[in-house]
């Protein structure tokens, strides 16, 4: 609107020198604008008068002041910084001040020709554009400059973080708790103008930019290229909808204080504490600088393994052996035929799909592990896939043609001494069929997964581990927490209660990998069994293990296999080319019916990644032989108990509709 004649005369009497300004001064109103969450990637200057300088008091006109006067002639022809602008309260100062700190009324006058001193700030600075002072007619030489006279009006702001006016009632530094950042510090504060009170914000927080960029490397992760938008609260329900994100700088959560301010990028599910935005990069060096020397840790295992075919036995018995062979110019002898104590038939060597024995039997027709063709062949020792590119031994008999062993798994040592989980006794090599467990299935004391592969155990203490966990190293590194050494420790006494990779619980038992510098904890199974890449029938490209939300992700996250919600703050497999994602626990599955019926309970590795299904069991409970299998949705409920069979170890009849839980038989 254009200012009316009364206000124009007041403005003119106030000492505005240019006649054109007194005729063309317009009151501008700055409205609160909703931020465009899907806006561009550049941080743009906010439209409106925010940032202009008042010609009366020479201070910035913030958008939170809501109103200001500008000259319509200047605004159309001048640079923004040169436009004649006034705070609303500067333009409407009354010609007479009655209630002040002085005992007499103060009259608005032109400043005298000689230098005079303001009785409030003791400054003799004169503004040539204004040349206005307030003077007491009853007291000799008592002057107050316009800047000091304006303090009350200037200290009122309209802030989008709060529904009421905020006022700076004490324009001097005080020690107070800031409601924006949650920190107690000394400075000038704004507080709620209503009687309810309780809301105070420091001036540094009050005038923080609406948008900003973080260009430092955050928590060992990527450089974030999008602008972050200020968030005045982060209610628990909103956090739940975003899967309870953690700060990308410090790694801590947000749910302890929902009312504190933060910065966000919804495109990337990128959230940062307000205080972390202002932390200099050097303050977080302990999380990014390498905390060990390679020379002090020879043979250090760097995880994750490249793909699903890798394992600790392969690493220690094949790759290290190959390296030693190259050094000593000899190779270990590999027999074409092997008699192994774990199997009743001689085994035939297959190397890169070739065998030295000419035969028309099923050995030459068997397919190796290929997830793209939905073909599975697992090693009976370590339960890792057997591919055509690696040497392995195979039973040629049709009755047991799924029995196979990696070449290196036939050379497993007979004992393991000083195992980290059971150092007091030697662990002996045991075949699973020799264990006192039904169908050779036991619970590993390190990863706590079901397993029916080969075993290292102490029979007297009933301590059993699978062959992978039998070789578990005392130190590793992992890309989920780069540059830091992770040490194998007893879980008891660890302060953190969730795994850094899967966000699953760290139970007060067994072993875990711990970063002593940061307190980060990782399950052994998540470190050792989640490969860096996997292949899946649903995607033509290798899928990469991701530890954080994908930058600039185009849509909501969901698993392509189970078709359920996917938490991107929990590790998952992702194809960048196709923008497809799957749960790590769903990766071994092909169909939705094979996955856990509650995706929130299926965290980290698949429950049956160490189980090789197959085999026949005869029971008096049913007239036909039963097959050992993983339950799927179509199997319905158990014939013994009322529970569903999906995502369980079961025995099922292939001739009739009979299925029963493994533990119910």
TrEMBL record:
Pfam family, one: C1_2
InterPro entries according to UniProt: C1-like_sf, DC1, PKC_DAG/PE, Vacuole_Formation_Reg, Znf_PHD
SMART domains: PHD
Alphabetized GO MF terms: zinc ion binding
Domain of life: Eukaryota
Keywords in alphabetical order: Metal-binding, Repeat, Zinc, Zinc-finger
Ranges where the Phorbol-ester/DAG-type domain occurs: 535-599, 620-665
PANTHER family: CYSTEINE/HISTIDINE-RICH C1 DOMAIN FAMILY PROTEIN, DC1, ZINC FINGER, RING_FYVE_PHD-TYPE-RELATED
Name of this chain's protein: Phorbol-ester/DAG-type domain-containing protein
Record organism: Lactuca saligna
Lineage of source species: Eukaryota, Viridiplantae, Streptophyta, Embryophyta, Tracheophyta
